[in-house]
Design goal:
alpha+beta, four-stranded antiparallel beta sheet, two-stranded antiparallel sheet, 13 helices, about 5% strand
Length: about 325
């Protein structure tokens, strides 16, 4: 038995439905000629009038599927061509250009991605500006949790007498505290990005500030597990390349077709404008916005200031050795 899905409104998806339920929706007018439907085996969503003749609706409702339309059907805009058993040429263009993609799985809830229109991908500089803000957020949060652990361990070890039989206790406590510290420093950013990227906003605080978001390749929201895997894929690549992964990821985000870094390709994600895959794709903005430019300028000044401090320290050290 076929299992059908239909879209009662843009961005909504209902189903699965059997043929009997489909016939009932046809009778009560829920399935209009232009309602988009889909079942397994179809390449894309199509208007109901284009596929009705291939279903069991005709046999389930013989008198109304092939006979003259009733007054109620006429009121709903049905015609003999719409309700007949023969196929009527579509007047909706290429079905592959439908704003709906065929479902990947049978799901009960609607997808939040609206397809159609141009998609603006966020490139290197916008992603870099977002990472600067996110680095500040995760850094403050990590140190706010991790440093008290180290301080507490230091105060605790001071209570032990190094010359006593428990002299090995401070080393064990320091080891545990250090391990907890690194778990916090690793776990806080991981949980932060996994939670924020899988939220309704689809974006971390940094990405929200620059007007970007992270979605699946088809525009749908990513789950917590995929968002967590995306972060660890980036981290693992960076560690395996001794830090060069940051540069490589940046270059990939700058020059690949959909501006994807390696961890995006691995996890099937893209970073796009916040209005991409919504009802208002025309609100997307190409290029850099004011927030991104301000962040980049401030970071540049900070970077130059650090270089100046290093140079000044080197000069001062050289003068002291004279």
């Amino acid at each position: 038995m076929s299992e059908w899905f239909y879209s009662p409104a843009p961005g909504r998806q209902e189903g699965p439905l059997d043929d009997q339920r489909l016939a009932q929706l046809h009778l009560d007018g829920t399935l209009t000629p232009e309602t988009l439907v889909w079942r397994e085996g179809m390449a894309a969503w199509q208007p109901w009038r284009e596929v009705m003749h291939t279903t069991a609706v005709g046999s389930a409702v013989p008198t109304q599927a092939t006979a003259t339309p009733s007054a109620d059907a006429a009121d709903r805009g049905w015609s003999l061509e719409d309700t007949g058993a023969h196929e009527v040429p579509a007047d909706v263009g290429d079905p592959l250009a439908s704003p709906y993609a065929a479902p990947k799985a049978r799901i009960a809830q609607a997808t939040d991605a609206v397809h159609g229109g141009h998609v603006v991908y966020s490139g290197l500089w916008k992603r870099f500006a977002a990472s600067v803000l996110d680095g500040m957020v995760t850094g403050v949060a990590s140190y706010a949790i991790g440093l008290p652990i180290l301080f507490a361990a230091g105060l605790g070890t001071a209570a032990f007498d190094p010359g006593s039989a428990a002299g090995s206790a401070p080393d064990a406590m320091a080891f545990l505290a250090l391990g907890a510290y690194y778990v916090v420093m690793l776990g806080v950013p991981a949980l932060y990005f996994a939670w924020m990227h899988s939220s309704d906003n689809k974006a971390s605080l940094g990405k929200m500030a620059v007007g970007a978001k992270v979605v699946r390749g088809d525009g749908s929201r990513i789950g917590f597990g995929r968002a967590l895997g995306r972060y660890f894929a980036y981290l693992a690549f960076t560690m395996l390349t001794c830090g060069l992964g940051v540069l490589i990821s940046g270059l990939m985000a700058a020059f690949t077709e959909r501006k994807q870094a390696l961890h995006d390709m691995i996890c099937d994600t893209v970073v796009v404008d916040r209005w991409a895959y919504t009802d208002h794709p025309e609100w997307q903005r190409e290029g850099l916005d004011v927030v991104t430019i301000v962040i980049l300028c401030l970071f540049g000044l900070f970077f130059l200031g650090m270089i100046a401090l290093v140079v000044a320290a080197g000069i001062a050290g050289g003068l002291n050795n004279l």
